[in-house]
Structure formats: C-alpha cells, structure tokens
C-alpha cells in the first residue's frame, strides 16, 4: 500500500481505501486533505468546521457521514457543503434589476418570518426539475464539514494522524448501501428519463418564475425611486426622464447606486477636513514642521563641520 506523509503544510492527509469496481477492478488509495476551516470572513461555526480538498468525485453527504463515523464514531457529523453547492444556490437565475435591491437589502429591517417563508416557497417553486439523481464533483473539489463541537474537530484530526501508524484506512462507501443512487448505466438512464419532465410540471415552474420576476421588478423600481431621491453633495435632486417617481431601467438604477456610493465615500474622506480653513491650517502646520526639521538638520551639519576642522592628526 503506498505511503504518504501524515501532513502536508497546514493539511492533515486522510487516506481512504476505494474498493474495486466493475469499471476498475482494483483497490486504490485516495488522499483527502483536511485542515481547520479558516475563511476570509470568519463565522461562528469555524471552530467546529473542517475544510476538505481533493474529495472523491462521487462524494455525497452519506459517504462523508460514514467516513467520519469510522474515524470518531456516530453523532459527531452534522452536515457538509460542497464547493458547487456553495457557488450555486437554490435561488432563481439572477435578474439584473433586482441586483440593486439585493445590494441595499442590508439597510432594511429584518422581514417578518411569514414573509420570508413565503418568498422561500416561491423561489423553490420557480426551480426547474432536477435531471440528475446524484451529482458528480469536479476533480480536486472542496467541501466544508460541520461537526458537533470543537472537540469533535480536534478528535478527527487526531484520528487521521493515527491512521498513518496503523495503516488501517477506512473504506469509502462502506455502509452506504442502496441509500445513494447508483452510478453507471442506471444513473444515465434515470437522467435521460428526467430530462423530459411532464408539461404541467414545466408550466408550474414557469408560472412561479414569473411571480418571482414580477416581485423583484417591483423591488427594483422602488429602490430606483429611492435612489433618485437622494440629493447630491450640493443638495440638489436630479430629475430624470419620466419624472422623479417614474420607473427606472436597470441601467439607470445601477448608475444612481454608483453615484450614491461615490458620494458616501467622498464624504467619508472629507470628514476630517470639513471646512476649508481647517485644510489650510493643516497644510501650514505640515510646512512649518518640514522647515523646522530642515533647520535642525542644517545645525547638525554645521556642528559636524566645526568638529572636523579642530581635528589634528598625530605626527
């Protein structure tokens, strides 16, 4: 069985044994690289999360649940988010006018739970039916595993270190059974069948998407109105085509949003120099400080020259 160092940089190397398949009748060892999750923007669950890279292409939640159960026992694994699932959310395709509404959503008050639930139902209904019974991951994909607590994450890393001493690697897909759809011809036949859904199902998804689109258009129009009502640095409100209260196109709303952000940034930069005389006084202070430093350096140079002139070498 091939050997591998227990660690590679910040990663702990987790070897797993992949059993033979009809398409490849030979057992192999696959290496998953594991470390503490440390995203650029910290979250509350980072201490009990592990970052995995080079996960097998046929990875599912049940596969990883069984793998971590073999390492530290059951009850420690809570969930997993794969790379493609983090990039592709379950929301409908992005609509240009709604971009403005989403950017300003952080400035609004929290919506009522009933309204959020209704929106989630509408977004879910707007999704087209899935055509694959089981996804495949890209080569070298990543995943984030959420464990029960910080102690569980530490125990997983310790269990990985012990594997390199015992050489008893966990078997990939063990105890999964028929809980995960099989790959191969059965998987492809199911995809061919799901690629042609019933017309009523497609019509229902289309109707739901139209509802979501209309809702986001209304949000974008309301946001555009509010943005156009924002005064500039001189206190004037620009009147655009159709009047101040007319619906704006997505390009107009985006342009208004950019102008508002630029004005906010400019005000932030000029906060320390609100009045012109403050700016002039600060410049004068800087010039006086430079002149004082120049005079001090000049006096030091004169003193050094005088000391050097009094020096008499020995005969």
Structure summary:
The protein is built from 9 helices and 6 strands.
How would you summarize the topology of this molecule?
Layout: E1 7-8, E2 11-18, E3 28-36, E4 49-53, H1 61-72, E5 77-82, H2 83-87, H3 98-103, H4 113-125, E6 142-147, H5 150-166, H6 185-194, H7 199-228, H8 250-269, H9 276-309
Antiparallel strand pairs: 1-2, 2-3, 3-4, 4-6, 5-6
Helix pairs in contact: 4-7, 7-8
**Low-confidence stretches at least 5 residues in length (pLDDT < 50)?**
89-101, 243-248
Number of domains: 2
What percent of residues are in strands?
5-15%
Helix content: 40-55%
Report what the structure shows.
Helix content is 47%, strand content 11%. It is an alpha+beta fold. The chain folds into two domains: 7-90 and 136-180, Alpha-Beta Plaits (2-Layer Sandwich); 91-126 and 198-285, no CATH class. The longest helix is centred in the last third of the chain and has 34 residues, at 276-309. It is flat. The termini are far apart.
Essential attributes:
about 325 residues; alpha+beta; Alpha-Beta Plaits; six-stranded antiparallel sheet
